[in-house]
Amino acid sequence: xxxxxxxxxxxVLLSAGCTVHEYKVIGQxxxxxxxxxxxxxxxxxCSLDEYTPRQAIHSGAGIWxxxxxxxxxxxxxxxxxxEVLVPACDMKEKDDFGSENCVYNPLLGMR
Length: 111
Prior knowledge:
Elements lengths: L1 H14 L4 E7 L2 E7 L6 E5 L7 E2 L1 E2 L4 E7 L4 E7 L2 E3 L6 E3 L5 E6 L3 E2 L1
Antiparallel strand pairs: 1-2, 2-6, 3-4, 3-7, 5-6, 7-8, 7-10, 9-10, 10-11
């Protein structure tokens, strides 16, 4: 059943036409998937590494993936083709620059 739900989630992500942001916790890692068919380069900036740009891996079909530890809370946003992007996420926090960051909380999952 878990495998079926995982496959269904990835199918929904792949079939969506617009920018999509999803995640999956696998063991001790959280895999963050970002879909943007038009993007040429995607970076994730995260509080775990002091917002140093971390290049997302392009896995085809416009899907970009980044992996972080799943046991720590962190804040993050994307840099897509040199433009800041904060995706739709349930849990956000204001930053010191008047914008927002998404928040991953291991007790709540991606919010």
